[in-house]
């Protein structure tokens, strides 16, 4: 009886898991429908758009990334110190944000006839290296440095010397530079206003070096894999649950 009960529960869980995959597939189908329906427009078109172009310098012109010294259209630098001094009880984050700096203007996207500013939320996540609104191969490049008293590494001038000198033996500095190179081909989907290209309030937002056709193919593959998972989870779940339920129902008393 115990084995039958456990098998029944496992089967129900697998069927429920199939339901979760169905919801994910519906999201991918909606995104695929938008990708196919919304064809690329000339840069400068207002509203919800798909665009094809290359990364370009923004209003502040050519940028030099502070950590690598590389030419770029936009950068963000984040300096973290761990463990946190402010939240030693474990109720807060495990690090302190010491420094956060970025380019003085937004990057831009151009199709060689017009140029449009791009909200950095499309270009790169704010602190994490992954962002749920982003889809496809990123247009940015990441450089990371980690410094401690036990394993010192040369740090660029953007890192304050008093922060380096005041570092404790148990602490480490983690420096991240996210930069967008110039002239990188991009396929983007978002919302164009007087400010520039912004993330969609609802629906799909894309800023990727993948082509439109590659992005569509990836979504189709996600749907196919999800559909296969639904079939297998449902079949195995029913195979486990139905005989177990029948056995439990036929037990005397």
Explain what the structure shows.
It is a single chain. The chain has helices at 2-37, 120-123, 161-165, 212-249, and strands at 47-56, 63-64, 71-72, 74-82, 96-102, 108-110, 115-117, 141-148, 172-180, 185-193, 196-198, 206-208. Helix 1 runs antiparallel to helix 4. The chain is built from 4 helices and 12 strands; from the N terminus they run αβββββββαβαββββα. Strands 1, 6, 7, 10, 11 and 12 form a 6-stranded antiparallel sheet that branches. It has a 4-stranded antiparallel sheet with strand order 5-4-9-8, with no helix packed on it. With 253 residues, it is of the alpha+beta class.
List the helices and strands and how they pair.
Elements: H1 2-37, E1 47-56, E2 63-64, E3 71-72, E4 74-82, E5 96-102, E6 108-110, E7 115-117, H2 120-123, E8 141-148, H3 161-165, E9 172-180, E10 185-193, E11 196-198, E12 206-208, H4 212-249
Antiparallel strand pairs: 1-6, 1-10, 2-3, 4-5, 4-9, 6-7, 8-9, 10-11, 10-12
Radius of gyration: 25 Å
What is the typical, i.e. mean, pLDDT? Answer: 84
User: For the report, how would you describe the main beta sheet?
Assistant: 6 strands, antiparallel
What level of helicity do the residues show? 25-40%
Taken from the alpha-carbon principal axes, the silhouette is: flat
Enumerate how many helices there are, as a single number. 4
Question: Which structural class best describes the helix and strand composition?
Answer: alpha+beta
What is the H/E order? Answer: HEEEEEEEHEHEEEEH
Q: Which parts are unreliable, with pLDDT below 50 for 5 consecutive residues or more?
A: 128-132
Extended strand count: 12
Instruction: Give the N-terminus to C-terminus distance in angstroms.
Output: 13 Å
Beta content comes to 25-35%
């Amino acid at each position: 009886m115990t084995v039958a009960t456990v098998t029944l529960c496992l089967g129900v869980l697998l069927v429920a898991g199939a339901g979760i995959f169905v919801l994910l597939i519906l999201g991918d189908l909606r995104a695929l429908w938008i990708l196919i329906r919304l064809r690329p427009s000339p840069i400068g078109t207002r509203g919800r758009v798909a665009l094809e172009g290359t990364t370009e310098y923004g209003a502040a012109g050519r940028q030099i990334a502070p950590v690598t010294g590389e030419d770029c259209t936009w950068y963000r630098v984040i300096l973290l110190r761990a463990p946190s001094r402010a939240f030693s009880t474990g109720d807060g984050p495990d690090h302190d944000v010491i420094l956060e700096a970025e380019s003085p203007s937004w990057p831009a996207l151009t199709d060689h006839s017009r140029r449009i500013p791009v909200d950095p939320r499309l270009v790169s996540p704010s602190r994490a290296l992954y962002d749920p609104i982003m889809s496809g191969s990123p247009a940015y490049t990441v450089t990371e440095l980690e410094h401690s008293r036990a394993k010192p590494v040369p740090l660029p001038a953007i890192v304050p010397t008093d922060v380096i000198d005041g570092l404790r033996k148990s602490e480490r500095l983690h420096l991240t530079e996210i930069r967008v190179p110039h002239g990188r081909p991009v396929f983007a989907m978002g919302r164009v206003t007087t400010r520039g290209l912004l993330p969609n309030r609802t629906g799909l937002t894309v800023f990727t070096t993948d082509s439109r056709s590659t992005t569509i193919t990836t979504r189709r593959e996600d749907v196919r894999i999800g559909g296969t998972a639904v079939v297998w989870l449902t079949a195995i779940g029913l195979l486990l649950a139905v005989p177990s339920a029948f056995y439990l129902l036929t037990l005397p008393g």
